[in-house]
Amino acid sequence: MKVIIVRDEDTAAKLRDEIKQTAIVLTLYESKGMEFDDVLLYNFFADSSATEANWRALFQAHKESRAFDVRRHAILQSELKSFYVGLTRAKRQVWIWDHSDEARAMETLLVTLELAESHGSDKEVLQFGVSNTVGEWAKQAQTYFSKSLFSEAGFCFRKAEMTWWADVALAYGQRQAALRLPEKHSERTNAFSKVASEFDRLARQAQKREYPENLRLMFVNAAESYVVISDHVQAAKSFLKAQKPTEAAYYFRLAGLFDQAVKVVRHFPVDPVVAENIKYAAMVVYTRKRDLPSLQKARKLCETQDQFFEFLRDHGFEDQRITFLDSISDHEEVAQALWDNGDHMAAVHRFRRSSTSSSRRKASRCLSEAISANVFFAKSYGDPSSLASQLFELAKDTLLSSYDRTEITLFRAVATLNSADLKLHSQRCIDAQDTRGAFLALDAWTQSGALSALEKAEDQDAAEILSLCHKFSMAVKTVIRAHFDDPEFQRMFGIASPQGADSSQPHEI
User: Which of 358, 395, 418, 485 is most buried, most CB within 10 Å of its CB?
Assistant: First the structure.
């Protein structure tokens, strides 16, 4: 095996252009640790940092049989070490090709010491190197490849008639060059794109030639090149072909392709942490889309339906929970969700569509709560809101519990200022120690026109009216002293906006 060794990469690049890769060209640094049958040192002295005088001083010291002045010519110490590296790369013969004046002194010295022969243009030169076998070329190619000398490896692979591996070495060399480009270089993305495409092509060739390990390696290289240029889709596809499902799922997720990422998680062994993160992110993305097919995809990522509902509740996806419940015809759950969201009217209708006894109880309670939340102190007297009127109508066709029916008739009496009914409800609430109900009923009673009858009332009727006024004053005192911080009273007075009511405008007291 033969090689040409030069001092630096610039000289190597120029020489490669001149000889068009008819031989291997390495720098001194690249050749360290390697051996070759024949070595040609090219322009070693011409490219030296030592001057002609430095090299001549070495020859003169030998000629005059005197000690060489090391301190005066200190630069030669490093130069001779480099010269030694070049010489010792050869196992058989070394040629020194140099046309510079700096080389003449060393040529004379080496010939004088009988360590070298000088050959001019008119003298026959021993053949540089011998023909190598295919096996020798292949072995040398592997050596170069292991040292990341990809251009040289490609040259040897071609000599060894290993075309595919020669292209592989070329692709590695292209990647090496792309990695050397600054991150903001205008050609970096294009360079890595070409590298990725080449590795992908090589992988497909390897597949035809049945190189399973090489196939995976090429796809990994392609994937990693796509990662550098943030082409996550192609990276994921290449990682999947390389049988690296965790990486494939991860980059499908980065690309926003959750269907593909989830598919990989379901069908291949993916790192548990990565798999759970992808499933969680996919559930969030699917749920935010709101449409039923997406919600069904999210549901399939949960082990149980209850787990899916818990996810929806924990993340505030109430509308989506209702949509999904509706799709499975679970009227009671849909109604409960609507109730939780403050949509009492829709909730009651849903409860009524369910056939369970619990739904009937909930419909009654929900309707009573809705009416309570929409009949306010003073503001609703004799002038119920449109929503309150609709709720009262709905109550006529709803099966109510005894308690809820009584509550609703109280609020209807308040809304219509029915004096007789208000008087009955006030007494009922007083007997039941229901301060809120008694206060509301008596206050509405005072606004119903009942007091205007006091002047013409008989003694017994007047006493009853005055008794009710006294009870009202006592109720007022109780509310002020003990109950004004009660949320039920605050809602009744319009201080806290009730669920289901219009909260855009403050309620008057």
Answer: 395
